[in-house]
Amino acid sequence: MTLMTPPPLDQEDDEMLVPQSEFPDGPQPMEAQAETASTVDSPAAADESPSGRFTWKIDNFSRLNVKKLYSDIFVVGGYKWRILIFPKGNNVDHLSIYLDVADSAALPYGWSRYAQFSLAVINQAQNRYSASKETQHQFNARESDWGFTSFMPLAELYNLTKGYLMHDTCIIEADVAVRKIVDYWSHDSKKETGYVGLKNQGATCYMNSLLQTLYHIPYFRKAVYHMPTTENDMPTGSIPLALQSLFYKLQYSETSVATKELTKSFGWDTYDSFMQHDVQELNRVLSEKLEDKMKGTVVEGTIQQLFEGHHMNYIECINVDYKSTRKESFYDLQLDVKGCRDVYSSFDKYVEVERLEGDNKYHAEQHGLQDAKKGVLFIDFPPVLQLQLKRFEYDFMRDTMVKINDRYEFPLQLDLDRENGKYLSPEADRSIRNLYTLHSVLVHSGGVHGGHYYAYIRPTLSDQWLKFDDERVTKEDMKRALEEQYGGEEELPLTNPGFNNSPFKFTKYSNAYMLVYIRESDKDKIICNVDEKDIAEHLRIRLKREQEEKEKKRKEKAEAHLYTIIKVARDEDLSEQIGKEIYFDLVDHDKVRNFRVRKQMLFIQFKEEVAKEFGIPVQFQRFWLWAKRQNHTYRPNRPLTPLEESQCVGQLREVSNKANTAELKLFLEVELGMDLQPLSPSEKTKEDILLFFKLYDPLKEELRYVGRLFIKINSKPGEVLVKLNEMAGFSPDEEIDLYEEIKFEPTVMCEPVNKRITFHDSQLEDGDILCFQKSVRIDEQYRYPDVPMYMEYVLNRQIVRLRSLEKPKEDEFSLELSKTHNYDDVMERVAEYLHLDDPSKIRLTQHNCYSQQPKPQPIKYRGVERLADMLTHYNQTSDILYYEVLDIPLPELQGLKTLKVALHLVTKDEVDIHTIRLPKHSTVGDVLNDLKTKVAFRFFSFLFSFYKEQIISFFSFPVSSSPSLLCKWFEFSFLCIQYHLLLECNFSNNKRYFKITSQVELSHPNAELRLLEVFYHKIYKIFSPNEKIENINDQYWTLRAEEIPEEEKNLGSHDRLIHVYHFAKEPAQNQVQNFGEPFFLVIHEGETLAEIKVRIQKKLQVPDDEFAKWKFAFMSMSRPDYLEDNEILSARFQRRDVYGAWEQYLGLEHADSAPKRSHAVNQNRHTFEKPVRIYN
């Protein structure tokens, strides 16, 4: 462990990271060990140092067969730490790395510690390409580990040419700095700076930094305020209104502002908010959208006036008088960082003159090919100059995106008139002074695969800089805003000089990404005053109302201890809700009238408030307390006593509410006379119980509330049947069945009531619910004939939205199902809707409630018991399922191993990709046989389509003897023979048939196929035909099938079989980069390179002029040793067998002329960032 004092880390948590504790499959005790090693470079006495570095060396990395792996424990700041990795990714196709508190289980209750740290995978070939990410976290018992779930793509990690794995060893480093715990939330941005931040929705820091920058350009803010909106617009559906609302809140709010209204107006869903995008791309898309929205309004052209500049592309002939020019506009300028020391160097490079000469001469009209100069000059610059720094570039040699962390300086004042206007075109207006002052610095902290954005801004162009980091706004000095954002490397002072004499340098991953300059001559116009008069009246009223509501809620929250919320339920609420919004119990208390009253108010005074609200005089009111029963039902329990009604509300609440919440729930009983006028409540004795009644109609499948009755406890149900019939509107002698609704969690309990015994014997009491219905006759058929069946149906009823797996964002259809439906029931209903005869050909996939996407793994055949299990994702419940229709039954598919194989045939140039499905116990030989069949069947289908009518006629009865038909049949037969399809015919008196036998498209009938494992353009393995396919992994390796050349089958005693790979040198790293298709080659003893080159050229069919540029090298451990034509090649390759891919091979050095692909077959599975789209 190398001890050091790291610099302060400014960035917040990387938005690609996820606390491991949020993953149900998160860190568990390690299940297996691997051969690992760690290094400690300093004495144990230094473990108390607040900062340190730990290096973890993991051998045999690609052979690790564990889901997760912990490092040895190391100590920093007196605390025990360890690194946790998921070698194959934590449910993602990226390496997952976390810093873990090693002894969290043994720490005392309430522990916490704060650390700033970085995790890195070392590039052992070129250290500056090491993958590193930084963050900070307050560790505690709930979040004892923190890090990066998507640290780097597995395809990049396992690519041996990248340098992260050498000799199958991976090196991981952790730099940890333990700090005093910072109370992040106690900081009052408004109080400290006068400004407020923006809340992060998950991964929207890139948007927050851009919005703060645009907001602090007052001229832009004023234009947004003047965009026409109406009081009927909704912010979630109007980008102008949402932006106006956001800017208003930033200007007048006391706390940080949410951006959900704005992102909803963009048409984004939750998934979009958790997808990090590029701030430069968002800036362009948002500007284009606002420019479009401003058309036809008083602020039309504002975007152009602020941000639009023009440059001239020119080509000027040197020897003749000819010049071609083209004027183009820009809203921002992309400046090179690589190879440039500062902004001026980038501008010099931007206008650099290119010479068109030699083979690259310019074709000028009327003058033919001419030597010429080509370049760019600026016609005018905009008042607000946006400079996008090209921190991310595509590295063609490494075939990947990389971040440029080089030091790059930018001035506080930028003079674009320097050196007599060297950047300006002759047409430029020289009277305009292009002197700019720096307004904003947008910073990216992190790497190419993720990071964090924040901004340094001077809102008034004063000397005071502010850092806008999501919700937090802080004052910063100029050095922090400028110099510390230049990037490059920083040297740390040594805390223990005796142990390490060389200073430690580290790359600064936080650096400027976008710069905003304002022209000095325009700053008074741009930094203008914006006040309420610039805001539309309806917007001011709306937003002030929102602010008042917010303030009211804040005040209510602050005074909550002085008040009680009384929720009053009435018969009207029961009638309105039962059978529509609820079916069980009596009422949803959140939807009844509530009163906020002081606890000191006398209850009799509260009754007067009720009288005013409902028009029921105090003397006609009787209130009942609700009680939660042991079976989790909630029923009126007893009326308030006169003594209780004489007390204050606060005392009453404490009596009724053991949970001591600030709520009091009451049922208001009002008796109505024949004229529907209220009456004084009758005296309730111990012999009276209050029952509530629901009526069920099995024909309509409806349940409704019909009223309540006081019943004598010792009476029988038969005595009230007439009254119940009257309440239901039935004839007095209608036969009815009674059921008691007892409970509904976790299952329905609704039992028949015996009409022959008393209510007392049926154990009925105040607040109980009786459901009744007409007695069902034998000849009546209903789906749910009685109350218990209907209640069971309602409890488990579930509307499920089905989506095609190919269109995971779109609801295709909905089905009403039951949560108790088993797997087969669900499949039958889906198949019925899709008009499929075989439900087993449907496969369902669950919904991930967090990502709002399908889960990676589909549901296995009968892999879940019930629909409820299909809709449950950890502790969340969804109503979405994804379906796909298979070509074979799912049980059969699950018994098969699916492999993707790239088939290379000598007889054709194209590479065909085949999906092979075979039983898991099958062998490689079975795969090769299946391949032959697939190729033959596909060709036969193609051939048959041309001769379909003639073949059907030829094999039909009666026999046709048409000469033309016979001619066509023989033509078909000849083609079958020509393309190695053996045609076997059978002719008899009563039937005719033919049989096709495959010979594939091989070079000859006896040719054999073999299966290879290819990874990043190298051959790693030749599979034995007897090898089982069950353990073959084609997720990262490409499986390639090819014909075995005859010369390989008959190797002489002195012949050698060698690997031949294409490569190009990468000058920057002095490394080789393999590409193209690798192959085997037989070399004979005494054969020179010149002779072998003839065979290679013929095999690859390379033109002479191109082949002459190729170089040939003997490659050992990726180091080329170039060969001469007269060299005997067999002397280099002494072993006769096939060498390992990382050992020796013949290298063919030449340019890679093949077009770059986004991905190859089952390798290079890079995930590309979803483009920014604003839909509305």
Structure notes:
Helix content is 22%, strand content 32%. It contains 28 helices and 60 strands. Strands 13, 18, 21, 22, 23, 24, 25 and 28 form an 8-stranded mixed sheet that branches. The longest helix is centred in the last third of the chain and has 31 residues, at 924-954. It comes from Trapa natans. Residues 533-561 form a coiled coil. Pfam families: MATH_2, UCH, USP7_C2, USP7_ICP0_bdg.
Q: What's the total number of strands?
A: 60
**Largest sheet features:** 8 strands, mixed
Number of helices: 28
Dominant shape: globular
Beta-strand residue fraction: 25-35%
The mean pLDDT is 81
The helix/strand class is alpha+beta
Low-confidence stretches: 1-48, 494-501, 937-943, 989-993, 996-1000, 1136-1141, 1156-1170
- The proportion of residues forming helix, as a percent range, comes to 10-25%
- Rg, nearest Å: 39 Å
First-to-last CA distance? 54 Å
Catalytic activity: Thiol-dependent hydrolysis of ester, thioester, amide, peptide and isopeptide bonds formed by the C-terminal Gly of ubiquitin (a 76-residue protein attached to proteins as an intracellular targeting signal)
InterPro entries: MATH/TRAF_dom, Papain-like_cys_pep_sf, Peptidase_C19, Peptidase_C19_UCH, TRAF-like, USP, USP7_ICP0-binding_dom, USP_C
GO cellular component, one term: cytosol
Family: Belongs to the peptidase C19 family.
Provide the fold topology:
Blueprint: E1 36-39, E2 51-58, E3 69-70, E4 74-76, E5 79-86, E6 94-101, E7 112-121, E8 131-140, E9 145-153, H1 154-157, E10 170-179, H2 189-193, H3 205-215, H4 218-225, H5 239-252, H6 260-265, H7 270-273, H8 279-294, H9 302-307, E11 309-317, E12 323-330, E13 333-336, H10 343-350, E14 354-356, E15 362-364, E16 368-370, E17 372-380, E18 384-390, E19 392-395, E20 400-403, E21 413-415, H11 418-421, E22 435-447, E23 450-457, E24 465-469, E25 472-476, H12 478-481, E26 489-492, E27 504-507, E28 510-519, H13 523-526, H14 537-558, E29 563-569, H15 571-577, E30 593-598, H16 603-614, E31 622-628, E32 634-639, H17 642-645, H18 649-656, E33 663-669, E34 671-672, E35 678-679, E36 688-697, E37 702-712, H19 721-728, E38 736-743, E39 749-752, E40 769-774, H20 787-796, E41 797-804, E42 813-818, H21 823-834, E43 842-845, E44 847-848, E45 853-854, H22 867-870, E46 872-873, E47 876-877, E48 880-885, H23 890-894, E49 896-904, E50 912-919, H24 924-954, H25 963-978, E51 981-987, E52 992-998, E53 1009-1015, E54 1018-1022, E55 1038-1043, ...
Helix pairs in contact: 24-25
